[in-house]
Amino acid sequence: MKLTTLISAFALLLIFSVGQSQTQFKAVPADENSILIEGTSNIHDWEILAKDFASEMELVIEEDDLKAINAIQLSIPVKSFDSGKGKMDKNTYEAMQADTYKLVVFTSSAPATLIEKSPGVYQAEVKGKLSMSGTAKMVSIPVELHKTKTGYTLKAEQELNMTDYKIEPPTALFGTITTGETVHVNFDLTHYKS
Description:
Strand order of the largest sheet: 1-4-5-7-10-11-12-15
Low-confidence stretches: 3-18
């Protein structure tokens, strides 16, 4: 490659990258953060919280303007799911084979362009691989990012069918209480610059 071509390519790269930065943000378990799973049964609706998780986002910021989500990584220990009811938690861990498959993991597969819907509120469609109970599937999750004084709050809702991940919906009282196959997962996670 000629020196002039190399210099031109380097100059183009410099121009493109001016004002653009890729910044890491992390969320940790805290009072303001929640991952809530809601489901149904033939008796009553139920919910369960993830009490532990690790979440990281890499965001593309140009001249203080949020442009894209480069990457999202979320990991939840199965045995951190807590309904406040010991028997229900035990049934959940058994259904998800928690001793063998200890984590639920989501990893984005490609950058997602953000669209500002209102000042400080951005929307995007994040695609990636969701793995649990020994099964991995590609999913597409609509997300919102809300700018805060010190970071961004990620809000998302996702519907999942347990049988898609080879999870037998938990039962209780010798099968007289049965849960529905579909659950709704609600994310509300504030990420701070790491």
